Amino acid sequence: MTDEARTLRVVIVDDEEPARLALRHDLESLGDVEIVAECANGFDAVKVAGEVKPDVLLLDVQMPKLDGFEVLELLDADVPVVFVTAYDEFAIRAFEVHAVDYLLKPAARDRLAEALARVRDRQSAARPAAGVLRATRAPGAPLERVVIRDGAQVHVVGVGKVDYVEAQDDYVAIHSAGKSWLKEQTLGALEGQLDPRRFVRIHRSYLLNIERLARVELYAKDSRIAILQDGTKLPVSRSGYQRLQALL
Amino acid sequence: MHPILADRRRFQLHLIAWTLVGGILALLVHSLLAIPWGAALVFGLPLGLVAAPVSLSAWYVCRATPLSRVGPLRAGATAVATAVLTAAVWAGVGRGWWILLRGQGVSLPASAEGSLFTLLLGLGALAYLLSVTVHYLFQAFEESAAAARRTLEAEVAHREAELRALRAQVDPHFLFNSLNSVSGLIGAAPDRARLMCRMLADFLRDSLTLGTVPRIPLAREVALSEQYLRIEQVRFGERLGVEATVDPACVEVPVPPLILQPLVENAVRHGIATRLDGGVVRIEARLAGDRAVCVVTNPRDPDTARRGTGFGLDIVRRRLRGSFGEAAALAVEPSDEAYRATITMPVEAAADRRAAGEGPAATGRPDDHEAGQAGRGGDV
Predict the structure, then answer these.
(1) Which among A246, A134, A132, A235 has a CA at the least distance from the CA of A190?
(2) A64–B236: do the CB atoms touch at under 8 Å?
(3) What's this model's pTM, rounded to 2 decimal places?
(4) So what's the ipTM on this one?
(5) Cβ-based neighbours of B142, under 8 Å, separated by 6 or more
(6) Which residues have C-beta within 8 Å of that of residue A141, sequence separation ≥ 6?
C-alpha cells in the first residue's frame, strides 16, 4: 500500500433513481473515485462490467429479472462487488459469494469510504480470485431461474421452462423450448441447486425436468430411453431409472 | 341442518309434544264424539305421531319466507295456507285410519266421520301453526346468534385493520424504501426530497385517521391508494404508472378503509417491481347492479417466483367477511403476464351506515385531500 490512493473506477447498479443519486452524491464527495457508469438493471450491469472493467461494482440486491446475486454469478470472477441493499437478510449469502462488503441503505458516507478502502486493500493484496461462486440462491431454497451469460448478452430462464440439462465437459447445456444455452457449471453443481422433486438425474450426463417426461421405453436389455413431450429421446441409466421410479 | 333433528333433546321434546297432540285428539274424540277412551286413544295417539315428521316441514316454510325479509303479513298468510293444506291431508289420513280401525272391529261409528274431519282439520291446522311459530323462534334465535358472531368477527377484523394501518406507518420495507429515496434526493434534488417527505407525512396521517372509522367513501379509499402509489413512484420513476378511475355513481359508496391497500402493495411489490420496464397499476371502481366493484390490475414478470402475496389477500378476505358477511368477495385472476384482483361489495343503504355509528367524520375531509392529491401527482 502506498499513501497516494489510486482513483477507483466505480459502477453503480440500482434500479431506483434516488438510490443511484445518493451513491453518486456520496462518492463525489469522497474524491479519488470515478463513476464510470450507472446501471438501472442487472442486464446493463453485466454488459457494462464486461466492457469497462471497473475496480468495483456497487450492487443493489433486489432488482427486477436479474437480482444482485445473479449479476455476481455472471460477472468475471475478478470484479470486486460491494452490495448496497435495504435488506439485512442477504448478509450471509453476500459473505458466501465473497462480496468485498455489504452496506445497508441508506449507507453512511464513512461506511461507504470504509468499503472502498477494503476494495483498495484487496487490489494491493492481489489475492487470487475467489473460488467458484455458487450461493446464488437462499440457503435451503431451490433455484427459481437459471442465469446464463452469452458474451455481452444475459439470458434468464425460469426453471419451469427448462426441459433438460446436458453435461458437456465443464459446461452444461440448458435446453428450453428447442433452444439451448451453454453455462459454465458442472451438472452436479446445478443439480444441487435445483428442486430435487422437479429435476431428476436420469443419466450421468442428463438432468430431466420431470414435467416434460412423456414416457420411458425399454430400448434393449437393461437400457431405457426417456421420451419427452416434444419427442426428444434421452438415455436413462439403471440408477437413473431407479431415481425416476422413486420420484414417480 | 334442521334445528330439531340437529339436537337430540329438541327431537325428544318434539316427539313428546306430538304425543300430547295425539292425547288431546283422543280427549276431544272421547268428549265430543262420545267414543270410549280405549278406542279414542288407539285412534288418536298414532295419528298424532304421524303428524310429528310432517310438522318438521314448517322449517322449510320459515326458511322460504323469513320474517326479517318478507314481513309478518306474507309470512302469516303463507303459514296459514300451508297449515290448512297440511291439516286437510292429515284429516284425510285420519278419516282413512278411522275407517280402517272400524274395519278391524274397533267401535268407531261411521256417523261421526263428518265432524271428525272438521275436528282433525282444526286441530291439525292449529298444531301446524304452533310448529311454524316454534320454527320461527328457532330461526330468530339462529339469526341473532349469527349476527352476534358477525359483529364479533367484524370487531376483530376492524382491530386488524387498525393494526394494519399502524403497520403501514411502520412497515419496515415501505418506510425503508421511502427513507432511502429521501436520503438519495436530499443532496441532489432537495425540492423533490421535501415533496417526498410531505407526501409520506400526508399518507401516514390519512391512513391513520381514516383507518379508525368503520367506513369511508369509495372515492376517498381510491385516493388513498393513489397517495401510496405516488410515493412509490418516486422510487420507481417512470417504471410505475398509475391510473385510477372512479365511476361518479359510486363515489360515495361506503367501504372499509384501506381495504385496497394490500392489493396495491402486492401490485407494486409482486408486479411492477419484477419487471424491467415496469407497467401501470390500474384501479377501477364502478357499480354493477346493487354492488360496488373495485378492480386492481397490474402486469408482472412470468419468471419471477412470488411469495407472500397470500397474507395481504387473506387480510382483505377476512375484513370483507367481517364487514359484509357473505355478501362481499375478493376474486383474483393471475396469469403469466398480469394479475387482477377484484373486490365486490354490497352497496349499503345510508340508514345502515348511520346505524353502524358512521359519523360525518369520514365524509368531511376527502374533498380537500383529493384536490391536493391531484395537484401533487404530476410533479414527482
Answers:
(1) A134
(2) no
(3) 0.62
(4) 0.71
(5) B3
(6) none
